[in-house]
Specification:
mainly alpha; elongated; Tetracycline Repressor, domain 2; single chain; 208 residues
Length: 208
């Protein structure tokens, strides 16, 4: 039952955001009473924390698989963005904003994952790209690894990119496109130009 509650809540959060979903909504989605939910979880944030933990575990496993399967750092960065696109295809843009503004404990889980795994993964990618001659040797790995993760978060800020004017993944694609072009060597550009049009990522997407 606990797994069913988390799965149903996750589906609702992804479709409608977090703040607008109530315990009544979760109970209705499951076809059970709120009392049954409260037997397993004290409140909505307790459910949300488990949703976030499961999502982090899933995303971490997929990222580790990309590290093993990617031919080089450029492939890895492109495929990671493609993976993100698939994961967020049906996500309500307000979810990330709600998480940051209203649910500090769950936001803290994401921040821990960000600093302990995502930033390290980006840093490793940049260092590998430099050593293999795909990225410029003069880039500052520490600065750019932080920039890349902050770009990810900025795309979710409705004050900067209102969802009625900007499709979230359109913004993310433009960010990764811009980021890569700024760090590639001539060797990197040559390889990048051979694969970018074959990628599932639509760098010039016209989604609004």
């Amino acid at each position: 039952m606990k797994e069913r509650i988390v799965k149903s809540a996750s589906n609702l959060f992804w479709r409608y955001g977090i703040k607008s979903v109530t315990m009544d909504d979760i109970a209705k989605e499951l076809g059970i009473s709120k009392k049954t939910i409260y037997q397993h979880y004290a409140d909505k944030e307790a459910i949300l924390k488990n949703v976030i933990l499961e999502e982090i575990t899933s995303q971490r496993c997929e990222m580790e698989m990309l590290d093993e399967c990617s031919d080089n750092p450029i492939d890895q960065m492109i495929q990671a963005t493609d993976q993100m696109r698939n994961a967020m295809a049906n996500m309500n843009p307000s979810l990330f904003y709600d998480l940051k503004k209203y649910y500090p404990e769950s936001w803290g889980l994401f921040q821990s994952y960000k600093h302990e795994f995502i930033i390290k993964s980006i840093r490793d990618n940049l260092a590998q790209g430099i050593s293999e001659g795909f990225y410029r040797s003069d880039i500052d790995v520490e600065v750019l690894s932080l920039l890349r993760i902050e770009e990810f978060e900025i795309a979710f800020d409705p004050n900067i990119f209102p969802p009625d004017k900007f499709h979230m993944m359109r913004v993310q694609m433009q960010f990764v496109h811009h980021f890569l072009r700024g760090i590639l060597t001539e060797k990197g550009f040559q390889y990048y130009n051979t694969i970018k049009d074959k990628s599932a990522i639509e760098f010039n997407t016209h989604e609004k």
